[in-house]
């Protein structure tokens, strides 16, 4: 099949503010050793789609370094190609505007079909099935739809389709609906149809969901492709932590099987030694990545490569990114901690029953999660409460009483 995949990977991920402070959302680490974009790239590779362009925008350096030549996803072959596209002048103003600003690349691709993908969702999907349905129905546009409970419709763009899956209506985040079809932000276009919709379109913030799809319904052949399996947008701290911790459930309860040999998730992985477990370590329900050393207690947590948990330290219900060190006697609970941060001896992080929401931005943190940025040194014996946001520039050694109270934001 003559398919060009365009991965939209320029989103800031503003609700993951600390995690996306120096990286775009698709580049945020997930499930220990992976990045969020690895799932979309792996889906392409497993689906036999090797002509891929990635549209980046904000802070592209981490993402560009991670993808490189595309070798981990088998994209460095003679018959494959991965291209990184960045704005030449103006920022992308909408999802369709991002494609429009790369119109020449699209025209030169000579692809018959264009697969539009988001680089910031967690799921496994065989795109060939969707493309084949698109061909069989003679569609101009096919929209992948997650089948959801209609009571959750206010979070999604909702579609209505008849028994043949022809879409008759699109509504963005309706308060109520009887439809169970939520747009996944995955589209298959006939290339000439897409080019026609983008050429000479003067809408500044041109967007697929706001403009292109509603404008095509009733005018062209627009169909839904139903998807029933796991699909998650980890766009908030709550969803990020819960999606990571879902992976440590027992085999019969894991919503996303990462161990399927027929559908591997590929990533760029640095060479590190095997996991090392100390003689007095206690581990219950945990995901441990390469290079991890555990001499203390780890419960219901995900540890990324190079994390060290010292004797008498305890990590519970948390996600620790690369090379985080938890010193002896320290306790970490309900936390997301970014790379290279060190938790000092006997420090208590994510501590207490005070559930005061984050005072600067309660919409980001109110459920008790505390988030620490990169390269932070938490002094020994320090107490950090719940719903705290601590950015990498914060100087914790300047805290007079060695206590960071619940709901605090430190920069």
Characterization of this structure:
- With 411 residues, this protein is an alpha/beta fold.
- The chain has two domains: 3-246, Spore Coat Polysaccharide Biosynthesis Protein SpsA, Chain A, CATH 3.90.550.10; 276-410, 3 Solenoid (UDP N-Acetylglucosamine Acyltransferase, domain 1).
- Helices cover 16% and strands 28% of the residues.
- The chain has helices spanning 37-46, 61-67, 95-100, 103-109, 127-136, 191-198, 208-216, 237-246; strands at 3-8, 29-30, 34-35, 51-55, 81-85, 113-118, 121-123, 141-147, 157-161, 167-172, 181-190, 222-227, 231-233, 276-277, 282-288, 293-294, 297-303, 308-309, 314-316, 319-320, 325-326, 331-333, 335-337, 342-343, 348-349, 370-372, 377-378, 383-384, 389-390, 403-404, 409-410.
- Strands 15, 17, 19, 20, 22, 23, 25, 26, 28, 29, 30 and 31 form a twelve-stranded parallel β-sheet that branches.
- A hairpin with a 5-residue loop joins β9 (157-161) and β10.
- The longest helix is centred in the N-terminal third of the chain and has 10 residues, at 37-46.
- The protein is elongated and about 65 Å long.
- The chain starts with a strand and ends with a strand.
């Amino acid at each position: 099949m003559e398919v060009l995949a365009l991965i939209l990977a320029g989103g800031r991920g503003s609700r993951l503010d600390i995690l996306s402070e120096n990286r775009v959302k698709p580049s945020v680490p997930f499930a220990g050793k992976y990045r969020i974009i690895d799932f979309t790239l792996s889906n392409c590779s497993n689906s036999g789609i090797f002509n891929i362009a990635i549209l980046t925008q904000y802070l592209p350096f981490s993402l560009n370094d991670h993808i490189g030549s595309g070798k981990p996803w088998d994209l460095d072959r003679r018959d494959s190609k991965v291209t990184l596209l960045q704005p030449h002048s103006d920022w992308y103003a909408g999802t369709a505007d991002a494609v429009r600003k790369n119109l020449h690349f699209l025209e030169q691709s000579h692809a018959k079909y264009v697969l539009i993908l988001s680089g910031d969702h967690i799921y496994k999907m065989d795109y060939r099935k969707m493309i084949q349905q698109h061909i069989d129905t003679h569609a101009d546009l096919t929209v992948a739809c997650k089948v959801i409970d209609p009571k959750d419709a206010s979070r999604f763009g909702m579609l209505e389709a008849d028994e043949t899956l022809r879409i008759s209506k699109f509504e963005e985040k309706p308060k109520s609906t009887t439809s169970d079809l939520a747009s996944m932000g995955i589209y298959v276009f006939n290339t000439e149809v897409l080019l026609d919709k983008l050429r000479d379109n003067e809408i500044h913030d041109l967007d697929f969901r706001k403009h292109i799809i509603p404008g095509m319904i009733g005018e062209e052949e627009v169909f839904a492709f139903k998807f029933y399996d796991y699909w998650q947008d980890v766009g908030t701290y709550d969803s990020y932590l819960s999606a990571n911790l879902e992976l440590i459930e027992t085999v019969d309860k894991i919503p996303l099987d990462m161990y399927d040999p027929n559908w591997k998730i590929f990533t760029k992985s640095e060479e590190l030694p095997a996991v090392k477990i100390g003689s007095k370590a206690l581990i219950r329900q945990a995901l441990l990545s390469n290079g991890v050393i555990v001499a203390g207690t780890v419960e219901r947590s995900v540890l990324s490569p190079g994390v060290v948990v010292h004797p008498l330290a305890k990590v519970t219900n948390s996600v620790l990114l690369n090379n985080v060190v938890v010193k002896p006697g320290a306790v970490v609970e309900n936390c997301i901690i970014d790379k290279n941060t060190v938790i000092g001896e006997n420090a208590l992080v994510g501590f207490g029953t005070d559930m005061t929401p984050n005072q600067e931005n309660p919409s980001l943190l109110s459920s008790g999660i505390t988030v620490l940025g990169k390269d932070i040194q938490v002094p020994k014996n320090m107490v950090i409460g719940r719903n705290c946001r601590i950015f990498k520039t914060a100087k914790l050694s300047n805290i007079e009483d060695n206590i960071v109270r619940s709901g605090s934001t430190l920069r």
